[in-house]
User: What shape does this take?
Amino acid sequence: MHALSQDHTGVRIKRLRLERHLSQRALSDLSKVPYYTLTKIEQGRAAATPHAVGALARAMGVQVSTIVGQPYNSDLRADNLDVLIAPIREALDVYDLGADPEITARPLRVLRLKSEDLCAAVRAGEIKQVAGDVAGLIEETTTAAHEQGSSEGWLILCSLYRTSYDVATKLGYADLAQLSLARLDWAAQRASSAVFGGAYQYFRALTYLREGKYRTGQRLVDLGLRTIGQAEPSRERDVVIGQLHLGGSVMAGRAHNEDQALGHLAEAETIAARTGESPTVLWMAFGDTNVQVHRVSVLAELDKYGKAVQAASTLAIPHDWPKSRTSHHWAEVARAQMFTGKLDASFISLQKARKTAPQQAKYHPMVRDTYASLEAAHRRLPDSFLAYGSWLASQV
Assistant: This one.
């Protein structure tokens, strides 16, 4: 008996392949994904790596989001998350209408603290809370920014647009994430902020990373580095530069360009030695911990799963590190362990991902696909494993 819906990534790949009248052999030849790997992915016996998904998407002429986008709309409805998306869209659409005469905006110092609270809540994995609060704050701060006309107001709006991007990304709404980034760029220009301008290019690059368009993503990383180079020296500037290098390392890893990936990691490590741990500077969680977490991720993207598992085993994540990032790390470790045959350890890591940030883990495609692969590999499933699948599929 399967605890989780069988509409996993492999099933969607097979459906798209058959719609295009392609045999497995033909799709393997077009994508350069090994035939044996493709068959295991379609059967759900192996999780699809981001590199494989990107190659298969390009070969079939579809977006990566079509394969691994948000397939959990019924779950979102059951958790009352889908109804929170429309207000965010509306809030993003009033950016250029000036001050709303029906809104009495609080002082900017209050709005700044509220925006910081939302950033902290995202990092704590409280997605539902943030999704419910961000729209109203965007509308109020839009009015305040137009009334004040100061850089501070536009910078607070930048932070809120970034938060709406975080929510949209975590819930799988790619179009809303793109719209949030367009607004972030708009506000950053009004604030004359090269720091947020560089951050915008970083987040923009991540959208191409998720779509498997690594060459364009790397160009955006380079543009971000040039943009942030115009900012005055500061810790914020260093953090964004370091984070751009981390983004570039994963981009190069997924493209299987090992030298470039390791080069970006080395640059980020040098910067982290200067900044120290900076989890709340622009809420990017930059520092040596993030560099080491990205090292695990890059090794996995390079299909060096044994080395990724080994690197993870020596990594101690601080207890106060952002829960959302920690949960994502455990999901990546679970995937690497699954590929090395460490099935029990992989499930333990999935449990850690859930315990750390349950709302995020429930809607994380990597969590679901890794679980599906473990389910296919286990002949005899313990009750705890079935309970985990029931939780993923639950509508509560």
The mean pLDDT is 90.
